[in-house]
Amino acid sequence: MERKLPVIVRKIEIEDGPYAGWWAEMRTNPPMRVIDALALSMDAAEFAKLVIDWNFVDEAGESLAPEQILEIPPDLFKVLWQLYLKEVWHPFWFNGAG
Question: How do the pLDDT tens digits run along the chain, 98 residues long?
């Protein structure tokens, strides 16, 4: 039987602030090289490749595809990035305690 690395997808939900109720389903187990590269370069287009689906919209209420990540405001990107890191890394590692 051939074994393959499972692709783990989790729903990351924004619970408060102006984007409460917004969510993104994202791959949470990419190779470490992907996370390391994102931490160094913060390439939004590469980050968008981890998004499977989301409910993000523009100012007119039109749905945005994950490939349109550069159309979201910086504060929304920051919230999503921070929540993603908390989901990917154990909280002890994320807070520098592990």
Answer: 899 999 999 999 999 999 999 999 999 989 888 888 887 888 898 899 999 999 999 999 999 999 999 999 999 999 999 999 888 875 555 555 44
**DSSP H or E stretch at residue 37:** helix 32-41
Strand (E) positions, the chain? 9-13, 23-27, 51-54
What are the extents of the domains in the chain? 9-94
Question: For residues 95 and 72, what is the distance between their CA atoms, to the nearest angstrom?
Answer: 27
Indicate if the alpha-carbon torsion angle 54, 60, 62, 66 is positive or negative: negative
